[in-house]
Amino acid sequence: MVGVRPSLPSQTWGYVRIITGTLLGGALGFYVMHRLELSHKEKMKQRLLKYEMEMKRRQDELKDDSSSL
Fold first, then answer.
1. Cα(56)–Cα(43) distance, integer angstroms
2. CA end-to-end distance (rounded Å), the chain
3. CA separation for the pair 62, 54 (Å, rounded)
4. φ and ψ at 2, to 5 degrees?
5. pLDDT tens column, 54-65
6. How many angstroms from the chain centroid is the CA of residue 55?
């Protein structure tokens, strides 16, 4: 093949490092986002539960007030 030089070991090692870094960086980014989504989902569940309990408490108070009249 005309014009194609065999790659140098240092150049090959550079490509390996770039590809490995890209793959590991992507995996780490995916893992971090996954953990953030799970923690956010759990936090929202807790907030929803707290909100539902507050609404139930208010409805019960409203019923008690209207029945005492």
1. 20
2. 98
3. 12
4. -85, 130
5. 999 999 999 888
6. 29
d(CA 36, CA 30): 10
Under DSSP, the state recorded for 2 is: T
> Residue 66 contacts by C-beta under 8 Å, 6 or more apart in sequence?
none
Which position has the token pair 């989504």? Answer: 37
Say how far apart CA 50 and CA 56 lie, in whole Å: 10
pLDDT tens, position by position, 26-57: 999 999 999 999 999 999 999 999 999 999 99
